């Protein structure tokens, strides 16, 4: 069974850097085609895709947020880490990590998601 | 950026009835369209991709159709567990791909 779980701070101050960790099980990021992405949802608003890392270390970022995002993986720990710099109150929302796999799913779609972690940006 | 518009915002349906949800793209996304279901307090779940292909373990009462700019998710006979939020997402020329604002299917 594939599972993912997000963790990180619930409250960050404006201008600070947010670091979120996605810990997963049931699959490996050393398997060809596998990827883990991050998606967020501000309160009452639509989902927004942020970043994705593949088994090959290939990364993809949302063009509008690329300058603020870094996604990395630690295959020994089965973790993916997302950092977002210069946080602002508009970044408040629920952050999800999710699984995908090339050649099984279309690029940009995610079949298994974590429960999400709520991040509030406030001074 | 392609804007995805879902309608209606809320759909009131009785169990056993058919539910039809719409998603419109501001420009053609071909068949690069997915549907997700999200229940309160739960993670989103992929239902449909490539506009009409059911994801693994998704019941046959869920079907998707459309191409270009207009898409439909149909739930043929609504079950109690189907009351949820539904989102469409395009992945044409991904990244970034964008999601619609969602349709809430509620008990009539």
Give a description of the structure.
- With 123 residues, chain A is an all-beta fold.
- In chain A, 0% of the residues lie in helices and 50% in strands.
- In chain A, strands 2, 4, 5, 6, 9, 10 and 11 form a 7-stranded mixed beta sheet that branches.
- Chain A is globular.
- In chain A, 38% of the residues are buried.
- The mean pLDDT of chain A is 96.
- Chain B has no helices and 10 strands.
- Chain B is globular, with a radius of gyration of 13 Å.
- Chain B is mainly β and 108 residues long.
- The relative contact order of chain B is 0.34.
- Chains A and B meet through strand 5 and strand 10 of A and strand 5 of B.
What is the total tally of β strands of chain B?
Answer: 10
| Strand order within the widest beta sheet of chain B | 2-10-9-4-5-6
Radius of gyration of chain B: 13 Å
Strand content of chain B: over 45%
Of all protein chain pairs, which has the greatest interface, and how many residues does each chain bring to it? A-B, 25 and 25 residues
Give the averaged pLDDT of chain B, no decimals: 95
Oligomer: heterodimer
Distance between the termini of chain B: 35 Å
Number of strands of chain A: 11
Total helical segments of chain B: 0
Helix and strand element order of chain A:
EEEEEEEEEEE
Determine the structural class of chain B based on helices, strands and strand pairing: mainly beta
């Amino acid at each position: 069974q594939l599972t993912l779980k997000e963790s990180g701070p619930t409250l960050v101050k404006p201008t600070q850097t947010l670091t979120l960790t996605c810990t997963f099980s049931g699959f490996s990021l050393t398997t060809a085609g596998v990827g883990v992405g991050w998606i967020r949802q501000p309160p009452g608003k639509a989902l927004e895709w942020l970043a994705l890392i593949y088994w090959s270390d290939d990364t993809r970022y949302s063009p509008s947020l690329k300058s603020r995002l870094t996604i990395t993986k630690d295959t020994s720990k089965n973790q993916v880490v997302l950092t977002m710099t210069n946080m602002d109150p508009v970044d408040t929302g629920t952050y999800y990590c999710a699984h995908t796999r090339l050649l099984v799913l279309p690029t940009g779609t995610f079949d298994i998601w974590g429960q999400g972690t709520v991040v509030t940006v406030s001074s | 950026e392609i804007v995805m518009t879902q309608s209606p915002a809320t759909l009131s349906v009785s169990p056993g009835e058919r539910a039809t949800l719409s998603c419109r793209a501001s420009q053609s996304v071909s068949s690069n369209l997915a549907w997700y279901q999200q229940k309160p307090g739960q993670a989103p779940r992929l239902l449909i991709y490539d506009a009409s292909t059911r994801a693994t373990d998704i019941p046959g009462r869920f079907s998707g159709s459309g191409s270009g700019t207009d898409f439909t998710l149909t739930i043929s006979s609504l079950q109690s567990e189907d009351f949820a939020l539904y989102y469409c997402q395009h992945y044409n020329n991904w990244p970034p791909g964008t999601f619609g604002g969602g349709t809430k299917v509620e008990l009539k």
